[in-house]
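--- STAGE predict ---
source: upstream dedup step, 1 unique chain passed
mode: sequence only
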Amino acid sequence: MPSIGLRLLNGGVAFITGASQGIGEATAFQFAKYGVASLAISDINLLSLEKVAQQLRNEYPHVEVEVLYIDTSKEQSIVDAHEAAVRRFGRIDYAVNNAGVAGPFLPSVDLSREQFISGIDINMVGVWLCQREQIRHMLKQKGLTAGASRGTIVNMSSVYGHKCARSNITYGTAKHAVLGITRNDAVTYGNEGIRINAVCPGFIETPMTMRSEGPSEGMQAYLTSVPLARYGQPDEVADVIIFLSSPMSRYMTGTDVMVDGGFRCV
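--- STAGE serialize ---
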């Protein structure tokens, strides 16, 4: 993102899931960089999350950081994490639903019902439950400034929310559905002052991508076919999330932004 000033966000509280590494971690740092007042970072891996929190406190001592446990496969854990954030900070202005899992990379005939439901539960149902809780809290608050939205939500889809790949039915189905979740609630709550958008990354160089069970030849095929001929970096996705969370995108809702190096085009 171009250098356009560190007060792009005018304070407020950001809530991020899957913040212990990769895109979620990069997003937390970008929110701090661009002017958020408080960060509620959440993950199932508290040990790694505490390390991220300490780095944030060291680099941005003026930003309040709260560490929250969340298991996005469990409804009560999602409810509890959001309530804890609101108890600490009083509101949620920017939400990023980033938590997810890769795989299993199996064709339907080799996939069990349990494997399919498990992937859907985290990558789709978990996103919807987080979005539901965020909307519930945002409806109780006013915008940070006169005329500002009550809150913004950015959901993590994928280039595979638009494209399909062999043996990718669980992940691909969930990421297609995330776009539907985004668009439907964007329509329902737009007139309530809540904006909801999605980001669709391609292959981003994160721990999850690098340890993915997907076939290595598939990763190589991506690198040879993507127009920009490289993996994306987490901060390149985080920059788009900041844009979608900021007043610069105030007339955008129900849309999704590709961050895939042009992979969707080929």
